Structures are given as structure tokens and as C-alpha cells.
Amino acid sequence: MRKYVSKELGTLRRELNCTMEEMASCLNISPRSYYALEKGVSQCSAPVLIRLVNLIPDPEHRLRFMSLLQTQMDRYENAAQL
Q: Which of 67, 60, 55 lies closest to 15, judged by CA?
């Protein structure tokens, strides 16, 4: 899930024409934390994930992101049950 979120962060940032610092501010996190998220070094907390979803301007893109995120979470839960 970390790779998926980091990819989406970078894509969204470029679509919004924002710097990493501006995205960090929108997500209410430090620029260093944002950098780690976008590079896949750390994972997104639930509050940051919610803010990220709210930043996605296109409703179809937002729905697709949430659907793929749910798929990733289901895979993680299924693997944990094995």
C-alpha cells in the first residue's frame, strides 16, 4: 500500500502543480514527512490519508483511488490472516 500511496501523492502533486512544501502544508505535515511519504519511506496515517482523498479534485479519480486503496487494504488483511 505504501508504494501505491507514494505514487498517487507524486501524481497528484504534479497535477495540482504544487511543490512538496505546498503539499505538506495542505496535508498538515512537515515537508520532511511529506518527502518520506512521496518517496515511499514511510506510511500514511489515517488523518493524512483522509486529507489526501479530499485534495483529489476529480470525483472519478477520488473514487478510483479509494477503491484501489480498499483493494490494497483487503490484500493486506487477507495476508495477515494466513
A: 55
